[in-house]
UniProtKB/TrEMBL annotation:
Pfam family, one: AMP-binding
InterPro entries attached to this UniProt entry: AMP-binding_CS, AMP-dep_synth/lig_dom, ANL_N_sf
Gene Ontology annotations of biological process type: phenylpropanoid metabolic process
Domain AMP-dependent synthetase/ligase: 39-402
Protein's recorded name: 4-coumarate--CoA ligase
Gene source species: Triticum turgidum subsp. durum (Durum wheat)
Gene3D superfamilies given in the database record: N-terminal domain of ligase-like
Similarity annotation: Belongs to the ATP-dependent AMP-binding enzyme family.
Length: 414
């Protein structure tokens, strides 16, 4: 990964970032951390709906999240409860997630194109007591929710048996002093991961772990992932996946950047949004990179405003990188590596830093700051050095609290 090894006792090799550790303000709530720059960015664009053109400033997003919190509380949501966001990308995803966080509740995120059985299984396992969804998925949950006595909220208009999201946010804001009592180690996000054996498990990410993970990326004098309030991020990757939730929405909020939301990938629509909004940061996954690299619809000038392309969730080889960069020759392209259970980012390309480092093409990046990583022999547990295959062990306050409905926690301490 190109990180700096740190020799310790008994020949243990712990890899660390080439960037210095920083002070991370993780003794607060996630929402207070994300909106810490409100005095600077309150009147600036925060979330832009690429489909409808609706635009919300930082002050409006903060207010709507407080109204969502008050609305969720009227429907019975409180500290320790779980709300399911069964949504494609939309502004209401952010309002609901942040609103639940203000109540000390957690959000479990699910793909609206899952089968009804998959959705019901996750809702049961997570203990969801309310479902926020949309027209494309509502029929998958209505009968289930009625049988369980769960309210259903729809974000795209009224529906029989459901509460309209517009009604949810129509009342007063949740007062600031009523957010008291939330502990940094309370769970705020409950994404499901199939990274272990058996059925997918709910990964318990706390206010502390998500603040730490976002800070490891975008905080510090020389952040590993340099977003600024002048940047415009493309939010195309699904927010129900931890990559987009963490490294796009939460990181974008912390940095004060604008975010343009796309519900689904379409090359023509993507090019139009890049041109219309001057998008500067494009988080992708390799299948999207392949489509853009091969598309005759995309020329080098179409995406000229993009200065950074982030790729994750799967590896990307050098040949694909080279073909893609012919379409965006002025951008920095790099990769990251992570897993939901790690909050999720373990490693990130240092070419994304404010003061960038030269990096090796095809690398998944170096270990994030304020974390330690080692490679161990899976049979003996012995610590391994560079260029030796083994199992990855990671430590840091970004790591999950545990998994739901598990009687034990599997892990190796560094």
């Amino acid at each position: 990964m190109g990180s700096v090894p740190e020799e310790s006792v008994a020949a243990e090799v712990v890899f660390r970032s080439r960037l210095p550790d920083i002070e991370i303000p993780n003794e607060q709530t996630l929402q207070s951390y994300c909106f810490a720059k409100m005095a600077e960015v309150g009147s600036r664009p925060c979330i832009i709906d690429g489909q409808t053109g609706a635009s919300y400033t930082y002050a409006e997003v903060e207010s709507l999240s407080r109204k969502a919190a008050a609305g969720l509380r009227r429907m019975g949501v409180g500290k320790g409860d779980v709300v399911m966001n069964l949504l494609r990308n939309c502004p209401e995803f952010a309002f609901s997630f942040l609103g639940a966080a203000r109540l000390g509740a957690a959000t479990t995120t699910a793909n609206p194109f899952y089968t009804p059985h998959e959705i019901h299984r996750q809702a049961d396992a997570a203990g969801a007591m309310l479902i926020v969804t949309e027209a494309c998925a509502v029929d998958k949950v209505l009968e289930y929710a009625a049988g369980k006595g769960l309210p259903v909220v729809t974000v795209d208009g009224a529906r029989d048996g459901c509460v309209d999201f517009a009604e949810l946010i129509a009342g007063e804001e949740l007062p600031r002093d009523e957010e008291a009592g939330i502990h940094p180690d309370d769970v705020v996000a409950l994404p499901y991961s199939s990274g272990t054996t058996g059925l997918p498990k709910g990964v318990m990410l706390t206010h502390r772990s998500l603040i730490t993970s976002v800070a490891q990326q975008v905080d510090g004098e020389n952040p590993n992932l340099y977003f600024s309030k002048e940047d415009v991020l493309l939010c195309l990757l699904p927010l129900f996946h931890i990559y987009s939730l963490n490294s796009v929405l939460l990181a974008g909020l912390r940095a004060g950047s604008a975010m343009v939301i796309m519900r689904k990938f379409d090359i023509g629509a993507l090019v139009e949004l890049v041109r219309a909004h001057g998008i500067t940061i494009a988080p992708f996954v390799p299948p999207i990179v392949v489509e853009i690299a091969k598309s005759p619809q995309v020329t080098a000038g179409d995406l000229a405003s993009i200065r950074m392309v982030m790729s994750g969730a799967a590896p990307m080889g050098k040949d694909l990188q080279d073909a893609f960069m012919a379409k965006i020759p002025n951008a920095v392209l790099g990769q990251g590596y992570g897993m939901t259970e790690a909050g999720p980012v373990l490693a990130m390309c240092l070419a994304f830093a404010k003061e960038p480092f030269k990096v090796k093409s095809g690398s998944c990046g170096t270990v994030v700051r304020n974390a330690g990583l080692k490679i161990v022999d899976p049979d003996t547990g012995a610590s391994l050095g560079r260029n030796q295959p083994g199992e990855i062990c990671i430590r840091g306050e970004q790591i999950m609290k545990g998994t739901t409905n598990s009687t034990y926690f599997l892990g190796l301490a560094l």
